[in-house]
Please model this.
Amino acid sequence: MLSLSKIYFLSMPKVFLLKPGSILRDESGRILDARSSVTLIVSGSRKIVADTGLAGEEEPILRALAELGIKPEDIDVIINTHSHPDHCGNNHLFSRAEVLTPGEGEAIAPGVWVMETPGHTLDSISLAAACMQGSEKMRIVVAGDALPTLGNFQKNVPPALHVDRDLAISSMKRIVRAADVVVPGHDLPFSVNTGGYAALLKRRIAEYP
Model:
């Protein structure tokens, strides 16, 4: 018989980085190339992909899913943090998934909910999950471009591309208050507590107890 603690662990979401985000600028700071992070959240039997990257990145996404023992048709839900093409360019991979545009506080699955985080765009959202990462409880926020890089966090500056600076700063502060770990739109996941990069889960889904 499973213990209560084991049942609690099994019921909590797990977060996997399928592909890190990246951004390339020239010497003047002009963006030459931008590709979003792609994140998988598994909550019970529900599988959610947050952002799907830039068109043409299908291979690394599919390879990462296969390493976790998941097929594209297993994905139930797609959440795009906003509608820029580097964040929704591979929605087509998940033909059976429902693409949701949820609002503030909406629950997507047990332990997974939406935060409205405008500023980069007026409709930017983030996806929060109360997780077990290994044996540690934590809150992970998939922030998209509301908090695009570790550098934005370390320097406390909003995304360079924004429609409303004040909203962007407010959203960044909200994400930092809510998160232990942030999955930024264009960088590796990082820890709010240590200010450094943080690893997410890598084992196949079936290997978790």
